[in-house]
Amino acid sequence: MSAACKVERPRQVSSAAGVLSLLDEQEYSLRVLALQKLNSVVDQFWAEIADYLADIESLYEDPKFDHRELAALVASKVYYHLEEYDDALRLALGAGNLFVLSEKSQYVHTIISRCIDEYVSERVKHDEAKAKEEEAAARQGAQHEGGAAPMDVDQQPQAALKPIDSRLEAIVERMFDQCVEDREYRQALGIALEARRLDRVEGIIKAAPNTSDILRYCLRHAQTVILSKRFRTHVLELLVRVYREFPPVELEGELANLCQCLFFLNDVTAVANILKDLVDKQDQKHTAMAYQIAFDIANNEDQQFLKDLLSHLPAPKVPEPPQQAAAEPAAPAEGAEVAPAAAETGAGEPTATTAAQGEGGSTEAAGAAVTASSGEAPAADQTQADAEVLPAASGEGAAEAVAETTQEETPEDKKLRLLRYILDGDAAIDLHLLFLSQKCKADLQLLEHIKNSVDQRNSISHNGIVIAHSIMHAGTTEDEFLRKNLDWLAKAVSWAKFTATASLGVIHKGHFKNSMKVLEPYLPQTAPQPGGYSEGGALYALGLIHANHSNPTVRQYLMQQLLASSQNEQIQHGACLGLGLLCMGSHDEELYEKLKEVLFTDSAIAGEAAGYAMGLVMLGSTSEHAISELLAYAHDTQHEKIIRACALSLALIMFKREEEAETLIQQLMMDKDPILRYGAMFTIAMAYCGSYSNTAIRRLLHVSVSDVSDDVRRAAVIALGFILCNVPEQVPKVVNLLCQSYNPHVRYASCIALGIACAGTAMSEAVNLLIPMASDTTDFVRQGALLALGLVLQQATDALNEKTKDVRELFIKVLADKHEDIMTRFGAILAYGLIDAGGRNAAVSFYSKAGSLRSEAAVGMCLFCQLWYWFPLIHTVALAFQPTGLIGLTTDLKMPSSFAVKNTAKPEMFAYPAQFQVKKDDAPTKTTTAVLSTTVKQQLKKRQSTMHIDDKEGDSPTAAAAAPPPPPSVAVKEAETDEGSKTATAPAPLRGAGQQGGEEDSASILSDMPSTRGADVASTAATIGEYLETSHTEVESTTSIDARSMAARSERKEDVTMTPADAPAAAAAAAGTDDEKDKKKEGDGGGDDPNKAAAPTEEEKDGVLKNPCRVLPRQEAYIDMLPDNRYKPIISDRKSGFLILLDQTPDEPEEYVQPKAAKEEDKEPEPPEAFEWSG
């Protein structure tokens, strides 16, 4: 083979020394060649090249060297490998066009990332400086107009910042162009939003082929990515301008998003004009869109915006029905449609109990409560109820009845009436009330088990069960558990009675029409009552029912009670809280002044409630005079309750104000009073709620490890949950180290922050952090972990989180453990209420379906966090609940029964949990008593002697009389049968505490002392239970031995002799027989898992969910519309909430969902006929 045919392998370069030596050459071309070679091998030999960095940088800095950009590129790559990223970025900027953005390498990606971060940081600094200059100029102009002195030195504009490096800007501009060329519009839009480049945002939106899609993407992220409120406003204004440039046909499908932008901009006039234009058009499609927009706006829960919007809309020509019907105690007519379990099964009977148990209560009050619950009313009231028009109705059939057109009403007037009905918020509340009532799956067996598992004499556990019951039934109007346990409920006294009465407000939340009727027996009467706990709780409950839905009549009533109860702190407390909730966010100056008068009385109890109420009324107003007055009084008063209420009130006033709250935040943080610093943390939480502000997060983390007060540190960590509620997946990462803090207050707050931000997500990361903390060494940390688990696992199944079953079992174990601390057991009871909130059909949600932050949710959770100091505030968690349902409505606001959706997920993935059942393992187990051999011998001798006597006297007449008594189990069964028959035939009377048997029980539920009421029954039951637990096995074993001995003796006709060694074997055989019987019973169905998902119905197995139905947030991805459905949603991508439907075949007949009839109650026995005593 010739040498020419030989194939030479390429020589592998093992060093860059030869190329580096060329850098020392004087020849220009050789140095350029060296740089070109080094650029190709720098990733291999960067360590060698690093020794020549000074030479390479000198070439870059030499202005006479024509290839400076190449030298900068090589040096940048070397610095990149040395992890000197700042120098790498500086030299990459000098490389100019040689730095290729499209190159797919780790070096390019890293430098671009650093470049974007640097550019965004510089742009933000310049934008904030510009904003401060504009603010200073506006302030200076205002001062000149008012003739004020020149502004202080601190207010002077700061020195101008250095301009942004043009090379940095050039790379970012090239990156924008590259993204558009590669059709990566969302990536470019995200960077433009972070960099606050409004011009680029507009260019990218218009360059995208699907403008509607990119606009929706921009709107969705404008509330999360953009941290500056000023720039967010500019972006929303840009979106409105782009939407208005759409052709009319395309704009019709985007009107809902356009109205959301206008809502965020607080442009009431523009929204009103859009709604009027849609209603004026005479076709079904435009009417449906108007109603859908109205539902979206109403669900944003901005009471002031809705009030202004209604004032801009024309009123129907036909007079509207009275909206004050909610405050009228008149009963509905016979056959009228009312909310389930409210009029027919309603809260009447527990109402009677609480009224009777109230201070000075009487049987007349109990009778009045029963009358109120029975639906009976005088003829005049009944006539008035018949005359009521149904926009004021609530619950079953309310929306359907509203849709009926009167003879004098035109179609246009009907549209306006229904539109106003929706914007009032009545439609959503009525439909939610109907949904929660009909779909309620609350487990009464579970509540009964909890009640029987805790210490009946402990006031905290009793109070916890009452609160948990109300949370479980929030908004459902179902109170069957209370009616079945009237005597137990009557044990609540003092503030526990206040809380128990207020719990009815949670149960009947949104039940506007019958609110006064339900609470009438508790409300203050004409004659002053001593104590006033029930009356104050009823006023608080009235506020909970009407929360964030102001009603003039209810407001007037609460105001009258507030003014008339100047000598009763309990009633003042309830009236203030009720007014604050009722007029939340109304900015009512008159009401604010009345509450301020109560605050200035310096009464700790009444002043605390007045402080909270002032903040609720002025929610988000940034009122300067309110801030100054609250802050000044907080410094003057000596009551910690009032100081804390004022501090929280300041936080509520700054709700969603972000940068505008900075001055107040700094002032509170520098205060020497730890309670005001505590308020500063919640001011940060409210002002930046859902903003994901890095500045706020850094500040809170600093305070959480530096403040000297445990309360302040606890509040700082809790505030993280509010700020990160829009990105719950980030919260476990942020609080991970805080969960391991040495400070128990920080650990407790970490749990609460996880529960707030991750509520209803069933997030594994959060659950994995919380479960170990449920066994913490500190009692209140365990309580916080249990509460957080209840929030995180709301509506969760084993398919969503495999630890759901274990957590539910943990709750039962903790609350039933008598050796566990009462604080922890209280947390477990509340946790079960939270995990099954709203009849298992509701969950905590900070955002509406349209993506707007819900003020009710933020306020409710903020006040709920004050449970550390005041238990009645736990009820406010109900404000954060959002029903998880899909409700399809026609343009007449009726629910068609033929509308359905397809659930493509497995039925058990989102099924309801099964009803609770007590496991066999939880039943009392038989104990085996140790028996000594000598004792066995004595028993055998005695038994043998007895057998001989029986043989001799078997036919004696006294044999039957001398027969042994029946086993204890038989006696107990007979006793239970007798007792049960007595209970069934003699129901407990409706009497309150202190009226049992006509004498007052001195040992109350709050005294933690044994009650003397029913002591004989309790002692007898305890004796029988103790006897059964310790002796049942021994008796059964002995009886079995005797039976076998007698059988053997009768068969063999001779005496039986048993050795001591045979006794254990006989006892084991008897026990084995009993075990086999127990196993057989368990196999018959007694061993079902009480925590597994409920068996799906045939309809659920097919995956078809009929209107209305429960749809969880995670379930929306599995929901599809049926192709052959008669109805089509006006917004096709909506999978939950209220869906306005278009009827494809309007001429065909249709059936609508009819409210289910309430359960029939047993009729009360007729009173005896009147008679005259003749003897």
- Spatial strand sequence of the major β-sheet: 6-3-9-8
Largest sheet: 4 strands, mixed
Strand percentage? under 5%
Distance between the termini: 148 Å
CA gyration radius, whole angstroms: 37 Å
Overall pLDDT confidence = 77
Structural class: mainly alpha
**So how many helices?**
52
The portion of residues assigned to helices is: 55-70%
Tell the overall outline: globular
List unreliable stretches of 5+ residues: 1-5, 148-157, 323-401, 949-1088, 1157-1162
Number of DSSP strand runs: 9
Characterise this structure.
This protein is mainly alpha-helical. Among the domains are: 39-98, no CATH class; 254-312; 884-920 and 1093-1163, no CATH class. 56% of the residues lie in helices and 3% in strands. A four-stranded mixed β-sheet has the order 6-3-9-8, covered by helices on one side. A three-stranded antiparallel β-sheet has the order 5-4-7. The longest helix is centred in the first third of the chain and has 40 residues, at 106-145. It starts with 16 loop residues before the first helix and ends in a 32-residue tail after the last strand.
Which structural traits does this protein have?
1175 residues; mainly alpha; four-stranded mixed sheet; disordered N terminus; 26S_Psome_Rpn2; ARM-like; RPN2_C; 26S proteasome regulatory subunit RPN2 C-terminal domain-containing protein; repeat
Chart the SSEs and their pairings.
Elements: H1 17-21, H2 28-49, H3 53-61, H4 68-81, H5 85-94, H6 106-145, H7 166-181, H8 185-194, H9 198-207, H10 211-222, H11 229-244, H12 248-252, H13 255-264, H14 268-280, H15 284-299, H16 303-312, H17 348-357, H18 363-374, H19 379-387, H20 398-402, H21 411-423, H22 426-438, H23 444-453, H24 459-472, H25 480-484, H26 486-489, H27 494-507, H28 515-519, H29 533-545, H30 552-564, H31 569-582, H32 589-599, H33 604-617, H34 624-636, H35 640-653, H36 662-669, H37 674-687, H38 694-706, H39 710-723, H40 731-735, H41 744-757, H42 764-773, H43 779-792, H44 804-816, H45 822-835, H46 837-840, E1 842-844, H47 855-864, E2 881-883, E3 885-889, E4 900-903, H48 933-952, H49 968-985, H50 1015-1052, H51 1062-1086, H52 1098-1101, E5 1104-1106, E6 1109-1110, E7 1119-1121, E8 1127-1129, E9 1137-1143
Parallel strand pairs: 3-9
Antiparallel strand pairs: 1-2, 3-6, 4-5, 4-7, 8-9
Helix pairs in contact: 2-4, 3-4, 4-5, 6-7, 7-8, 8-9, 8-10, 9-11, 10-11, 11-13, 13-14, 13-15, 14-15, 14-16, 15-21, 17-18, 24-27, 24-45, 27-29, 29-31, 30-31, 31-33, 32-33, 33-35, 34-35, 35-37, 36-37, 37-39, 38-39, 39-41, 41-42, 41-43, 42-43, 43-45, 44-45, 50-51
Keywords: Proteasome, Repeat
Biased composition (Basic and acidic residues): 1074-1084, 1157-1166
Domain 26S proteasome non-ATPase regulatory subunit 1/RPN2 N-terminal: 15-135, 155-315
